Amino acid sequence: MSHRMLFLGVYGMEMVECGGALALNAEAGGRSFASIMLAKSQMQTELQAAAQVLGVEKVYFNEFERGDIDLRREYKLALVRVIRETKPDIIITQDPEHSYEDLDPDRRPAMLLLLEAIALAGRDYGLEEMPELEPHPVATVYYMSPQTPNCTISLASVWEKKERAMDCLSAQMTFSGHHFSERLSVQEQQAIHPQFAELTPTQRGREVQRAMDRALYLHSGLGSHSRFALAEPYRRQGLMELERLIP
Asked: Where does the source fall among the domains of life (predicted)?
């Protein structure tokens, strides 16, 4: 069954981290969208390329102020507008539990802003600023990269797409390459890739990301005694509502 699916992210790479769900929805005839708060200009271009790979129909860039995410009306209205325009059946966003301990800046206030916008989108909020858009309540929310997942999806059919989408993010990979070159000892670097020192910063970042992705998705799949080899983990908000028990 196809759905309208919206990803609400902070920096950008999260869109690709949820690329399995977005791509599977698009392949099933659904419409996938994404909204990113803080992507810089180069990252925006690269995310557009990644979106094409994943079948994401449109990416909204909010261009909020880095280091100063808060609950100002301007930010809430921007996210409410995205939700009302895309009319999603499903929203994917960052996990509240995980965001509290994440040391990336803006994660914690962003979580409050995201949840508030999701709630306000279905109320009579901001109607004077967007009279052409009716309130849109969102029934189902999934949290990405949760500490306590309660569901997974198989990546087997879209793994190549997810990898190609991550290849598009050279700015993020370059940043990660410099970061891990400083953080990891030579021995640890070689454990990731035997020729780590000979790689460019972009290649270093990509190899580390590739290793982390495979470890996470294998753990969520085979490592958790799943029938899935590689699995993207999520935590669904609220109870699972099933018409009948599923195997």
From this structure: Bacteria
